[in-house]
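Ligand-bound model needed. shikimate-3-phosphate.
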Amino acid sequence: MRTMIVRPAKRIRGRLVMPGDKSISHRAPMISALAEGTSRIRNYSTSADCAATLSCLKQIGVGIEQSQLELFVHGVGLHGFIRPGAPLDCGNSGTTMRLLAGILAAQNFTSVLTGDESLRARPMQRIIEPLQMMGAKISATDGHAPLTIQGTQSLQAITYELLIASAQIKSSILLAGLIASGRTKVIENDPTRDHTERMLQSFGARMESGVDEREGENSHFAAVDGPASLKAQVTSIPGDISSAAYFAAAAGLLPGSSLEIDGVGLNPTRVEFLKQLQSLGFAVEIAEESVENYESRGLLRVHGVRSVNLKKSGSRVMLNGSLIPNVIDELPLLAVVGSQIEDGIEIRDAAELRVKESDRIATTARNLRAMGAEVEEFDDGLYVNGPTRLHGATIEPHGDHRIAMAFAIAGLIAGSETEIQDSDCVAVSFPEFFDLLHSVVE
Ligand code: S3P
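Prediction:
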């Protein structure tokens, strides 16, 4: 376990390109595997999570080759997977486990999905229940992995209203729905990231999505008609906006900074963090440049033009409600930003943070306090007061990549040296993080 020292920085300068988006990367080989023909995937995520997806797919008979530029995935169609000889190890990756469960539920064999200690502690009942409603037999211990999935090729389509705003649950059901017979419809009251819907459209699935009028204007639905017939595609994955977020925050917080990030994904369900920075007074420009595979991408430019006078409205900034799913992975970083904002930031309706790779409400609060911030913790969020001059501290990420990275950014704006313990955990989503950070920090 490596400890990384982060020193206070003057500013950030440079032009970066992020590795491929993690969420889109998980989906690309899964959906390619379900298609007929050989698909090509460019700019696949370098994350350990996405490597876990590939190794699980290989274990169920999907041929995958990797050249320097792209991945080749030989589709097996809806039913061409083979029974794995051993449990499928999803590592730390909730997306791998929950999405693959949807595909495996519809296969004529039994498989076991497992993962590391953190993943085995995360809730799986949320996907078990809808997949069982479709006819799959899944057993777990107290709603936790390992999951034993007794799949069946005769899954039935369902209409399911999400009780938890989660793109992973939605995607798991839609992937099972691709293979089931009939129209599977997922209704969500707080819309979540829609990469699965966009990619299924790009592979030729019969899809429909939009506002669910009977349920009210905030209520969305996504529906897929199964069994689907998918055709191999070339998918080009945009840079990961959740990885770009750390650099954007650093540049915004350090006066005199100037940063450009090119080719970054700008899916409307993922740009909320940047919008929040803008409304707090940071100089963030977003220029959409192209759309490929129904996903837009573009240039992000951030200047560090202000220091302590961010957001002087006389009341704390409140982040809650339907905004939360669209900024869920950036909340620890927003809490760090909150420590630099007049009156701070309050995050609510975010109890989901407690069941991420770590309990992110607790790990964020503890580490922010260690750096001198005043934090109040709630069941469903936290309040970080500001502005506070942070000081260096020893950060314990609890194996959580997003905590390690958020506090590396806190370390840049602190008054003294910060030690990030177990810093290797950043490889879960972003192995290049510290190298890229060193390349732009002055
Ligand atoms: C993801 C969805 C989110 C997010 C995770 C990736 C996805 O999880 O936190 O990092 O790729 O669908 P939930 O759907 O559980 O909120």
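DSSP finds 13 helices and 23 strands in the chain.
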